[in-house]
Amino acid sequence: MIQYLSNQNLNNFSGKVCLLRIDLNIEPKLPLDSYRFQAIIPTVQLLLKHNIKLIILSHRGRPVNKEKKLSLNCFIPLFKKYFDTDVVFVSNFQKNLKSKIQNSNKIIFLFENLRFYQGEEKNDINFAKNLSLLGDFYINDAFAVSHRENSSVVAITKFLPSYAGLLLEKEIKNLNKIIKNYKHPFVIIIGGAKISDKIGVIQNFIKKADYFLLGGGPANTFFAAQGIPIGNSLVDNSILGSFIRGSTSKILKLISKEVNSRKIILPSDVKISDRKILDIGERTTQSYNAIIKKSKTIIWNGPMGMFEKKEFENGTFGIWQAIIKNKKANIVIGGGETVASLQKFRIQNPKLKINKNIFISTGGGAMLDYLSGKKLPGIEALKRS
Ligand code: ADP
Ligand code: MG
Predict the structure, then answer these.
(1) pLDDT value at position 188?
(2) Atom of ligand 1 nearest to the CA of 365
(3) Atom 5 (ligand 1) nearest CA
(4) Ligand 2 mean position, distance from CA 193 (Å)
(5) What is the 166 CA–ligand 1 centroid distance (Å)?
(6) Is the pLDDT of residue 149 over 80?
(7) Which atom of ligand 1 is found nearest the CA of 339?
């Protein structure tokens, strides 16, 4: 059983040192990534309020050689600003680190990028042990990394009492709700880059959902599979090859059938530039929006087009408009760029209010895995701990 931080009597933890795994794999420049930074605040505040010292653990990027630009020290100003307290940067393991932390009058310690250590991504037991020696208990509040079998997410739970933080709890509960208690009409919107990342979600919901609305690379891949010329558009060749060869895979056969039956819906018009499809067209946006408007359950991952460019933002922004207008449906949205597109949409619409019926996940791959029905190693580890 997962032990949730929210169920603990935190007075018993007062004066202790918590190893808090969060996700700082974000740009330290606000505001574009502010959503994912803000998501970590409640757990940090709750712990500080109970006089618990924090050693913050995170990775950032894919360092090969401890590149300075991937150090976590760039987050110190952000922590200072949000928590109004000094932050001590811990650049590596040192002698007597735990007692130094215990005896310090500082309360937040930020550990260097975990991926500067080879053990992290190998789920190395010794690395996990060395980390564990710094604290008294462990919290996983990094949903976005919980699909990875890494030391600071999995192996560390063998050494310390381990809990799910407030953010992880919120993610698990909201995603469980949409998996178990969906209502019809149920629509799943899939865009972005690669369809191979998302096929598990289509598979898991193909019988449950009423519509799949496609855009971006996934739509292009289906066009190509049907022999529709798509010029130099982004496609997912790994999947396209299987379609063209007449794949024997059950799911690909089923998907082809559902495209024909119009459960899986492709854009009826697109925006093209330089022989590339770069956005869904206006007619498509309108027909997708009509479906979104009447739906009671909605999942969305992946922008409809290359929204980073002004000429190709309308499809994605049109979907945001319809989603935000639907104040009744249970809505789950996730993915790094999908959430970034919301931030961009909000800059243009500063008065926009996101209602409570919309849950924005901090997970990209982790959310897709969870919604695909896969077990996430970081969550399973908490159950065993
Ligand atoms: P997320 O991070 O939300 O899961 P993905 O990583 O799958 O989404 O894909 C996001 C990227 O896909 C965006 O950067 C966007 O520019 C790009 N994209 C979407 N549609 C297209 C398209 N038609 N052609 C090229 N790139 C696209
Ligand atoms: Mg992405």
Answers:
(1) 98
(2) 4
(3) 192
(4) 7
(5) 29
(6) yes
(7) 3
pLDDT at 325: 97
**Residue 108 CA to ligand 1 centre (angstroms):** 36
Ligand 1 pocket at CB < 6 A: 191-193, 216-217, 234, 277-278, 301-303, 305-306, 308, 335-338, 364
Rounded to the nearest integer, the mean pLDDT of the chain is 93
> What spacing in Å lies between the alpha carbon of 123 and ligand 1's midpoint?
30
For the ranges 199-203, 220-224, 239-243, 336-340, the lowest mean pLDDT is seen at 239-243
Tell me whether strands 276-280 and 270-273 are parallel, antiparallel or unpaired.
Answer: antiparallel
Say if residue 193's pLDDT is above 60: yes
Predicted model pTM: 0.94
| Averaged pLDDT, 81-90 | 92
Kindly give the distance from the C-alpha atom of residue 202 to the centroid of ligand 1, in angstroms, as a whole number.
Answer: 17
With 60 as the cut, is the pLDDT of residue 129 above it?
A: yes
Q: What is the 3-state secondary structure (H, E, C) of the chain?
A: CCCEHHHCCHHHHCCCEEEEECCCCCCCCCCCCHHHHHCCHHHHHHHHHCCCEEEEECCCCCCCCCCHHHCHHHHHHHHHHHHCCCEEEECCCCCCHHHHHHHCCCCEEEECCHHHCCCHHHCCHHHHHHHHCCCCEEEECCHHHCCCCCCCCCHHHHCCCEEECHHHHHHHHHHHHHHHCCCCCEEEEECCCCCCCCHHHHHHHCCCCCEEEECHHHHHHHHHHCCCCCCCCCCCHHHHHHHHCCCCCHHHHHHHHHHHCCCEECCCCEEEECCEEEEECHHHHHHHHHHHHHCCEEEEECCCCCCCCHHHCHHHHHHHHHHHHCCCCEEEEECHHHHHHHHHHHHHCCCCCCCCCEEECCCCHHHHHHHCCCCCHHHHHHHHC
Closest of 105, 108, 113, 119 to residue 149, by C-alpha: 119
What integer pLDDT is reported at residue 244 of this predicted model?
Answer: 73
pLDDT digits (tens, 9 = 90+) for 63-85: 999 999 999 999 998 899 889 99
What was the pLDDT predicted at 237?
86
Residue from 234, 239, 316, 368 to probe ligand 1 pocket by mutation (most atoms less than 8 Å from CB): 234
